[in-house]
Write a structure and sequence with these properties.
Layout: H1 16-29, H2 33-63, H3 68-81
Helix pairs in contact: 1-2
């Protein structure tokens, strides 16, 4: 079952070159400029969320550094399971 979220129209000002590039890409992909912009906005927000999670993880390791013995054990284990190509 697919649900649709309510959408709000927003005004975004773009230069002519950017609009032309978006329109060419939309035509190549068989989609609309609006869809590309929605996907782009979602990608920017996802990247920001991921960057925030990375910052929180780094801060947690600053507060509670890794145990060097545990890191060494994990390194050895990883080296043992690396596939031979």
């Amino acid at each position: 079952m697919m649900t649709h979220m309510a959408r709000r129209q927003v005004l975004v000002q773009l230069d002519d070159e950017l609009v032309d590039r978006l329109d060419r890409l939309a035509a190549e992909l068989g989609t609309s400029r609006s869809d590309l912009l929605r996907r782009g906005a979602a990608a920017v927000l996802a990247a920001a969320d991921e960057a925030g999670a990375d910052r929180e993880l780094r801060e947690a390791y600053r507060r509670q550094p890794q145990d060097p013995a545990l890191v060494e054990s994990a390194r050895r284990l990883a080296a043992d399971v690396v596939p031979e190509w």
